[in-house]
Design brief:
Layout (H helix, E strand, L loop, with lengths): L1 H22 L3 H23 L6 H28 L1 H22 L7 H20 L10 H27 L4 H23 L7 H5 L1 H21 L1 H8 L2 H11 L7 H22 L2
GO cellular component, one term: plasma membrane
Main location: membrane
Family: Belongs to the GRP transporter (TC 2.A.7.5) family.
């Protein structure tokens, strides 16, 4: 069951950047619309599941995790405009895999045996090689400065993803109980960010269209919480990062982000390594 709960977020998170990029607009439109959709799902799950009550410390920690996710997602949205979805997603995936897996192993003691550590870290290297291959050739329409800026943005903001992904393992409460405060924290953080950067975002049509992306993301986030509890964050998170396959191919097919024949071959080979690596990690 835990494997299934990790595979579905891979599907939904793969489609999310395609929707946001297709809708267009600024990073503020993307993040505010997304968290509005997420808050709607959070409220519905809270009312529908009637989770157990949690203390205020756990509530605040869960809100903090949601707010940290906003940091990572704003960085990803900003990178779309610098280096496109097909380039951003593999790089972002590699950074998330490194940080989250290291937290799972060294903080929470996952992959306890020497054999599992050797296989696990070798597998992470395989995944990183895979996502690196998908970026071979770059994009002719973006200059070197844009690539450097995109990389810098992703490096600085990925820590938000790491914290968000680790919290479900650190808090010893059912995932349903922590989900609503996470979505509330994400909404409040995004609202503050938009108020400081561009308050007109609240009334723009592109913001409201991105609610669809938020609904998909939040359903995936709920399933990820369940998966992390059942199979551990290192394994669950690695499986969910199969989303890079969907988002990368979707960027080429649906967003028409161009790759020549050589670049496409490297991309397909790299994605095959990602699939293989995720499959191995799932059974550690």
């Amino acid at each position: 069951m835990g494997i299934v709960c990790a595979l579905l977020p891979a599907l939904f998170w793969g489609f999310m950047p395609l929707i946001v990029k297709k809708v267009g607009g600024r990073p503020t439109n993307g993040i505010l619309g997304t968290v509005m959709g997420a808050l709607i799902v959070g409220i519905l799950i809270q009312l529908g599941t009637h989770p157990q009550a949690i203390n205020w410390q756990t509530f605040l920690v869960s809100m903090f995790a949601g707010a940290c996710w906003v940091i990572g997602q704003v960085g990803q949205f900003a990178a779309y405009n610098k280096i496109s979805v097909t380039t951003t997603m593999p790089i972002s995936t590699a950074l998330q895999l490194i940080g989250t897996s290291l937290i799972g192993v060294f903080v929470f003691g996952e992959w306890p045996s020497m054999f599992s550590k050797i296989v696990g870290f070798g597998d992470i290297i395989l995944l990183i090689i895979g996502v690196a291959l998908t970026t071979v050739g770059g994009e002719k329409g973006n200059n070197h400065r844009n690539m450097k800026q995109g990389l810098a943005i992703l490096l600085l903001t990925s820590i938000g993803y790491w914290i968000y992904s680790a919290v479900p393992k650190a808090i010893h409460v059912p995932g349903t109980a922590m989900f609503f405060p996470q979505m509330l924290g994400a909404f409040l953080a995004a609202a503050v960010y938009v108020l400081l950067v561009d308050r007109h975002t609240f009334v723009e049509k592109k913001t409201w269209k991105n609610i669809i992306a938020g609904i998909l993301w939040s359903i995936a986030a709920f399933l990820y919480i369940i998966a992390a509890k059942q199979i551990g964050i290192a394994t669950a998170f690695t499986i969910t990062q199969l989303c890079v396959v969907i988002s990368t191919l979707g960027g080429i097919v649906f967003l028409h982000e161009h790759k020549n024949a050589r670049e496409l071959r490297f991309t397909l080979f790299g994605l095959a390594l990602v699939v293989l690596g995720s499959f191995i990690t799932a059974f550690l």
